[in-house]
Design goal:
Layout (H helix, E strand, L loop, with lengths): L11 H14 L12 H8 L3 H13 L3 E3 L5 E3 L3 H19 L4 H13 L1
Antiparallel strand pairs: 1-2
Length: 115
């Protein structure tokens, strides 16, 4: 279940993005699952449709969601692809947080894959 904390310092679109990402990573949302429409979710959460649309767009850019126009918005990928994308995204975020240069981060991945 998704919810927005109006008292949080985290913007509503980011709260939503984080919650959907967590639900994908923990398996509550699986590849192929359809998400609510922007308008429906906005109404359910009491937030502006543009807020939901922004969260969905950012999740599409990260590869976690697949927007299919009038057909709706779905959790992207098959299980293997989804798991690999989620791991790559997590690694990229951790590498940035550690201050690693992108070339260094990629070299570490190459070594891990070869070894």
């Amino acid at each position: 279940m998704l919810h927005i904390d109006p008292d949080s310092s985290t913007p509503p679109f980011e709260q939503l993005r984080q919650q959907i990402t967590a639900q994908i990573h923990n398996g509550e949302l699986r590849p192929g699952d359809r998400l609510p429409t922007v308008r429906r979710l906005a109404g359910d959460l009491g937030i502006a449709p543009n807020t939901v649309a922004r969260a969905y767009r950012e999740l599409e850019r990260s590869g976690l969601l697949d927007g299919r126009g009038r057909a709706g918005t779905f959790v992207a990928g098959d299980d293997a692809e989804h798991t690999a994308k989620a791991a790559a995204l997590s690694y990229a975020q951790q590498a940035r947080a550690l201050g690693l240069d992108p070339a260094e981060a990629l070299q570490l991945v190459r070594r891990a894959l070869e070894g």
